[in-house]
User: What shape does this take?
Amino acid sequence: ECSAPWDTHHGGRVCTVCRALVLVCDVCDASSEHGEYWCPEHSKFRNSYFHFLDRFSEVDLQSQATRLRELLEQEVGGSKNRRTTLRKKLLQVQSQLQKLRTQTEQTEQTDEVAVLPNKQSEATREVP
Assistant: This one.
């Protein structure tokens, strides 16, 4: 991460994409918010490919989906495995986006139902 000389592997410091061990110094590991790292082969996936998606907002996921599509377009004629990996992650991101949208819609509907009886009761009180 910081390019400091470091020669100690740690079992929990692996590439988010391929799970290969990655050399990460203790300082960089401590400063990492979520402990996600990328090996040199997958370094261009940084900020696009994450293992855990549940911490991201809808806007973040849309941005990730866009970047994953761009990476996928760059892989035309490249490795079939890499394209498959990107395609699967894009599907996961889209699925998480749909899940968030469904939860938002359900919350809005619940809020509307909770508000309606209050408005009706106020209207009833105003009429003599």
